[in-house]
Amino acid sequence: MESGNSGIGNSNSKSEIGKPVITLICGTLVYYHCAYRKSSLLSLLADVLIVLLCSLAILGLLFRQLNISVPVDPLEWKISQDSANSIIAWFANTVGAAESVLRVAATGHDRRLFFKVVVSLYMLSALGRLLSGVTVAYSALCVLCLYMLAENLQSRNICLLVSKTR
């Protein structure tokens, strides 16, 4: 068996499975806060900022006691130019693709696309009348997380099959 290519114990595969799980946990907390507690998003944001501030204060006190220096100045934090460019490019491509689809649908040049957009918007409107927006958003988040988990597990199984055949 080759070392490092087996897919088992690979830290990248663990983080790929962890992303949908963490997203689902965060979504569940947002859903609980907004749907069951009947609180607003502004209240949720304030609660999150309070928890972050208290956590950072406790960590700061702990690091001070352990004599660990932590860069506090955000100008000392580094992000590579490639990372910044890829984030901006992804955002620009997403907005551009959505704008392009809506423009083509609105002009009526592609009747199929036009009817798909109209039916999708009508279904979302009907769904919005039946359920609250928070419930619909949480359901979509759950489906997205299940899709991400299935995709990661499938790629992990493919890696395991490839490593077993070698």
UniProtKB/TrEMBL annotation:
Gene Ontology CC entries for this record = endoplasmic reticulum membrane
Annotated InterPro entries: Reticulon, RTNLB22/23
**Xref: PANTHER family:** RETICULON-LIKE PROTEIN B22
Where does the source fall among the domains of life? Answer: Eukaryota
Membrane-spanning parts: 41-63, 127-150
Keyword Membrane among record annotations: yes
Q: Which organism is it from?
A: Rhizophora mucronata (Asiatic mangrove)
Entry membrane topology = Multi-pass membrane protein
Using the record's annotation, list all stretches that form the Reticulon domain.
21-144
> What is the name of the protein in this document?
Reticulon domain-containing protein
Compartments (UniProt record): Endoplasmic reticulum membrane
User: Keyword set for this entry?
Assistant: Endoplasmic reticulum, Membrane, Transmembrane, Transmembrane helix
